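Residues determine shape. Take a concrete instance:
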Amino acid sequence: MTKIAAPDLALCAADALPGFGAGFIIALNSAADEPDRVQLLPRGPVLSGLDGRSWTLDDPSKLVEAFNARALQLPIDVEHAQFIKAPKGEAAPAAGWIEALEIRDGEVFGRVTWTAKGAEAVNSREYRYLSPAFNHDAQRRVTELLGAGLVNRPNFQMAALNQEAPMFKELFKKLGLPETATEADAIAKVGELQTAVNSQQVSLATFVPREDYNLAVNRATELENQIKAAAKSAHDAESSAAIEAALKAGKISPATRDFYVATCASAEGLAQFKKFVEAQPSVFAPSGLDQRSPDDAQGGVALNADERKIAEGMGIDLKAYAQIAAASQARA
């Protein structure tokens, strides 16, 4: 046996009309104008109402097939008047008409045209929710959509139909659409932009393949490292030569060699060191002992040729002269 389920009847006359069930809270629009695409049923397979009742929707595409087979538009009324007032012979005018059904990610949507009074009821917020009516079998499986009603006390919790959504207005603005655009307009515009991007040829003057880019970066990095290594090698050689020359000239002492090596590690330090050496006197000049011959050793002090001549000219014993020279060096 086929039974009829209508949105919010469970809240007002479920006992008097046992064949009716609960509908759903559906968001009609998020702008100030009535929408032309509305959600009629949520995703199944279980459709649960706030009053505890539930139905099953295994294959929503069958509802589309049934709608197309009937080839009749489905009415959207006010407070399900087609099921409450019409059977009593009372007026039950339509607020809008469902012209087509479509499935979006398991949810049932309808393309709608509104009557003047229906549009006014939505835009003025006299009614904020849309509740579907449908047939179901004894196992409570939804078999056919019958229409929908504008209500304010729905049985299924979903978004309100005519809430303001500045976010959507800003999105429409970014897409170059008017504020009165619908969700369908936005989806279509996004599709156009995607097609334009996919069809656009990539300019090699602006873009290169990732592999080529990575190869170029790696080669540039390797070359830069080689240049840095060569520069450091040349700098170290120059620093070493400058320090050795300063040592030989007696400008610095061997004990301070490591200090000046650290100082000359940078280009600025090397430049400062060269200026220092240029102005520094030879305070660490060789003693001249390296010019003396081992054969002239007298009492542990070697005499050079000049010292031998002085000693011989003055008639001083070489050994005594060597002792005098040793004592003099000790005092120094």
The mean pLDDT is 78. The chain has three domains: 3-182, 211-279, 289-331. The first helix runs from residue 61 to 70. Residues 3-182 form one domain.
